């Protein structure tokens, strides 16, 4: 019998790679053999595929069955190859026409009863299929909407192995899932229960929030319990514009690999908000895991917000591991089996109490912590990490008048969001023709080159550098914040006032 070939996709990081699945049914000692740098899940496919075929009323070849997944140098992990393996075996055994399974990509896990179960990473696999020139992709019915995000593919959703074989025996796999515009498949925005109008007072915190939303800058709120640190951080997403199509597909691909996509409407069109608990491990935050390397919280927050509440409670190893992704916008996870790079361009938001009891510096309440304990508590946030935080704000409890004020008169998220959009548009016009979108992404070479400011405008920076209170990295971050403040103020370039305000916010002083 001839060798039957079909195709599937393997995931490495957020990229899909074409895998050719070949099956040969020939003479020799009866048995099934797999080759091609496989992990345990694929080796177990031998039993899953055999049971699925038998329970779908197809005969398993009474011969030597050899299944090869190539290229052999590409690691292949997970159970998403089950459907492709089953179709290759059926083609080699003559139970389906081999020529009809050669062009499509097949992706899906098989149940022992022949059901086709959903898998992770369908969107990256679909993009890999298009890159390989495929026109058709067969996926589990539960993954059809996700695969339909790629308009160049005809998507054939199937619920069982028997259904797919019947389709192939009748003709080529050219059925198509209903295609919708990707933005119509976006996860509907949750009812807006969060609004900046809910926050009592905290004008300084609200100002910092607007600046960080407009420029993509990192943020640190420091203050006693009940001052609104978490409330403010959670409302950051309410003033950030939705993702564009390219960004939405990028974010969706990451969440697809992580298995966190909602079913039915899989496109994530809103910036994600990820808030890991302080007991999270380094692997959970940065990425890792046994077998296939999964994206961590820093990658799940890509194009969105990574919020660390009670930041000093996180292990020092976790906090310090954030330095590289905060600076580069990506994270590389290395294991003995290889390394994987995930995108991680997020806005970091930190919240912390001033001491373990939280009462340090609060009028009318007595702090039970010793000076040494207070110093040790905040020193858990290392200098190199805080050097990468653009805006630092110390919050105080709201006054009685602020607490009892009519919230209907407080500025809402919608009002602030309009100013944020306008500021981002000003920055986008200035950055047109470059790969950067936000002021926080602008490199040092441009800040001190084409965007260089006059000597008298930079006078506040010169004084801070001379006093040793500002590092080289801090200079760049102050300049980026100053450009954002100028965008919000509708100024073409920052003045000395914007530089002074940005410097004050970087140092965490009272405005």
TrEMBL record:
Coiled-coil region(s): none
AAA+ ATPase domain boundaries: 215-399
InterPro entries given in the database record: AAA+_ATPase, CHLI-like, Mg_chelat-rel, Mg_chelat-rel_C, Mg_chelatse_chII-like_cat_dom, P-loop_NTPase, Ribosomal_Su5_D2-typ_SF, Ribsml_uS5_D2-typ_fold_subgr
Protein name as it appears in the record: YifB family Mg chelatase-like AAA ATPase
Gene Ontology molecular function: ATP binding
Family: Belongs to the Mg-chelatase subunits D/I family. ComM subfamily.
